[in-house]
Amino acid sequence: MRHTPSNPVFTAIDKSDLDLARDLASRIAAHTGGIKLGKEFVTAFGPDGVKAVVGDHIPLFLDLKFHDIPNTVAGAVRSAAATLQPNMLTIHASGGPAMIRAAADAAAEFGENRPLILAVTVLTSMDEDDLRAIGVDASPREQVLRLARLARDNGADGVICSPLEIADIRAELGPDFKLVVPGIRPAGSDHGDQKRVKTPVEALSDGADYLVIGRPITEAEDPATAARTIAESLS
Ligand SMILES: O=C(O)c1cc(=O)[nH]c(=O)n1[C@@H]1O[C@H](COP(=O)(O)O)[C@@H](O)[C@H]1O
């Protein structure tokens, strides 16, 4: 695994232009803890594109949100860990106990180079109405806690959750369970499609381990300054 960053921010580079992604990464590298690459980028450019952006040293959060039968997810985790050595990768907690366990066991095969397995709970773009629309009769808070418990009980290292659920999960699942938090918006910035948001300082003081921040950095007029300003606000 790449080194563990001291800056808690992973910048999400959600781009389908390789040169732009590479340029952004080199401009912000000194001011971000790591880089998150996900479906948009990896589908376009594959593992070689990922390597072109993060090189050997930038901590990598590989966000492909695996959700499939256990055997397929275990294979995907092995392929990702062997090919790209990410610090962390994502699965959907709603894939269920056997799928979460299969992902955790596959990651464990990589010993000290294993990626952290983070389970996505309820997407930060979803609210209670969205949950109801997919047949879940619970508040986002209740559903996130249920899925976080399920993730912990089946060997995941932590969860992705919105800033509004950090304190509850931390209180219930203890200090070692990793909380990785998107839906972060510096004061005054555009919320876009995110519905459950807090500022970087609020999220860290509530107990987040890592923050995932995309557009407030990547769409800023000067991404390096935006990343540096956020990092300074947290130090
Ligand atoms: O897994 C994620 O990282 C994730 C989970 C979630 O519930 N909500 C969420 O926004 N994300 C990711 O976090 C990033 C947020 O980007 P911005 O909204 O641009 O800051 C995107 O790359 C999303 O894919």
TrEMBL record:
Listed SMART domains: OMPdecase
Keywords, ordered alphabetically: Decarboxylase, Lyase, Pyrimidine biosynthesis
Binding-site residues for substrate, renumbered to this chain: 14, 36, 63-72, 124, 185, 194, 214-215
Pfam families for this protein: OMPdecase
Coiled coil stretches, renumbered: none
Enzyme Commission identifier(s): 4.1.1.23
Domain (Orotidine 5'-phosphate decarboxylase) ranges: 8-230
Database matches in PROSITE patterns: OMPDECASE (PS00156)
Top EC group: lyase
Active site: K65 (proton donor)
Pathway in which the depicted protein is active: Pyrimidine metabolism; UMP biosynthesis via de novo pathway; UMP from orotate: step 2/2
SUPFAM superfamilies from the UniProt entry: Ribulose-phoshate binding barrel
Signal peptide: none
Function recorded in the entry: Catalyzes the decarboxylation of orotidine 5'-monophosphate (OMP) to uridine 5'-monophosphate (UMP).
Subunit structure: Homodimer.
UniProt family annotation: Belongs to the OMP decarboxylase family. Type 1 subfamily.
Protein name: Orotidine 5'-phosphate decarboxylase
